Give the backbone structure.
Amino acid sequence: MTAAAPAGPLAGLKVVELGQLIAGPFAAKTLADFGADVIKIEAPRTGDPLRKWRLLKDGTSVWWQVQSRNKRSVALDLRQAEAQEIVRKLATDADVLIENFRPGAMEGWGLGPEELLALNPRLIMLRISGYGQTGPYRDRPGFGVVAEAMSGLRHLTGEPGRVPVRVGVSIGDTLAALHGVIGILLALQHRHASGQGQVVDVALYEAVFNCMESLLPEYSAFGAVRGPAGSALPGIAPSNAYRCKDGGYALIAGNGDSIFKRLMTVMHRQDLGNDPALSDNAGRVARVQEIDAAIGQWTAGLTVDEVLAALEGAEVPAGKIYTVADIAADPHYAARGMLQTVQMDDGSQLAVPGFVPKLSATPGSQRRNAPALGQDTDAVLREVGLTETQIAALRERGVVG
């Protein structure tokens, strides 16, 4: 993107990305944001299907500009033996290899951990799949939505008695990707001490299940099967979405003991705020319907902005439900660098999310735009020792694109 962009804490880390769509590529994108050299392997002619997902600009998804920034694209037909040999060459001096194929696919190509770790014992291999590399479900096709259902998340979403709804983004894939990044960083620390690489096995359903908080211990201790609760937070009160005079909703989290008293003071409901029975969470949970009704009656007489202004002054956590238009206009997003602008190949400007987490000394950055399909094929093949004649011959046979 710019020669002045900081190199990042992962500068010098070589990553080979196999797979497509969301989980594996999101993990690689996170590494690339912080300086890793990510070589993305894509199928010739078609490339990663994400290139054509959702809204397109000049034939390419604008999502692609986020998911594949800072990466290099190499077009290889992994079904062909010569392409598989190129991956082995890349893996020989790579630090990390990321794949999210169904278990067994890499082994079928001679690219499983046994082969690759024999070539490069320092290699860290992240494998993301629906159900993991072992267990009775390992061979089932697994997508993020299925993982969200199996983890228990889908059972908790929506309103009681209605069809469970999905989170509006691919949260299962993204959580798996972030767990994969954590696994890579842990494995790098181990390699620093031992010199040995290893396999990081991430299952989509396990990544979501890892975020399910008290779900399992509550079932184990009490036989409690938690169900959907709409916008409320079961067992923690008050915390809900409350309708306001202008038709919008204010999200209010008054569940801290002192916060609850401040909230009731703003509402002029000291009768509730000073009630000893409501001084702790357990007491408030027992009377949550009464409390929610009181808060709802108060918000119904005010606009969302009026509610938020009153609660900000009382230091009560609250917020409104943002649309993307709200995000794009929000000064805090801008001040935190979360609204980045990139220049597209046609000269137009595109807003994209910024870099997370924030590092004070080695922040993430955009060094180059998302690549065209096969944009870096020749350069990367030369790096692994192929001549121009050899590259031309491989292209003639359809091995590379």
Notes: The domain at 239-320 is CATH 3.30.1540.10 (formyl-coa transferase, domain 3).
